[in-house]
Amino acid sequence: VQLQASGGGLVQAGDSLRLSCAASRRTSSNNGMGWFRQAPGKEREFVAAISWNGYDTYYADFVKGRFTISREYGANTMFLQMNSLEPEDTAVYLCAVARRAVAGTGADDYAYWGQGTRVTVSS
């Protein structure tokens, strides 16, 4: 499975971005998916996850109320709507396909990873 993340860019604080993640085949339609991010000099951290059917979603505390994860049911595409962006959100955002139908918050819960898309938020 290959994952392609897109939608990143350079924005100002308070702006919005919508990230997309496309998987190469339908394997991901039966699996949970998630977003992680990695800022320069920091470890990779969980951002959001969604179950295989889109019914269950999970968020890191620092993005609750600002970010929304979604997916096209049965398709290979996942999204992350990011509103009210802050400079602290600057990072490379990576999408991943989980090992099971319900995605977890740990990196070990995921089997496939994309290369990421860079988000830079200026103050």
Describe the structure.
By secondary structure, the chain is mainly β. The protein has strands at residues 3-6, 9-12, 17-23, 33-38, 45-50, 57-59, 67-71, 77-82, 91-98, 110-113, 117-122. The protein contains no helices and eleven strands. The strands form two sheets. Strands 2, 4, 5, 6, 9, 10 and 11 form a seven-stranded mixed β-sheet that branches. It is globular, with a radius of gyration of 13 Å. The termini are far apart. The mean pLDDT is 92.
Task: Summarize this structure briefly.
The chain is mainly beta and 123 residues long.
C-alpha Rg (nearest Å): 13 Å
- The N- and C-terminal alpha carbons lie at a distance of 37 Å
Q: Kindly estimate the percentage of residues that lie in beta strands according to DSSP.
A: over 45%
Let me know the number of strands. Answer: 11
Q: Helix fraction? A: under 10%
Q: Which series of helices and strands comes N to C? A: EEEEEEEEEEE
- Which shape, going by the Cα principal axes? globular
Largest sheet: 7 strands, mixed
Q: pLDDT below 50 for ≥5 consecutive residues: which ranges?
A: none
Structural class of the helix and strand makeup? Answer: mainly beta
Mean pLDDT comes to 92
Number of helices: 0
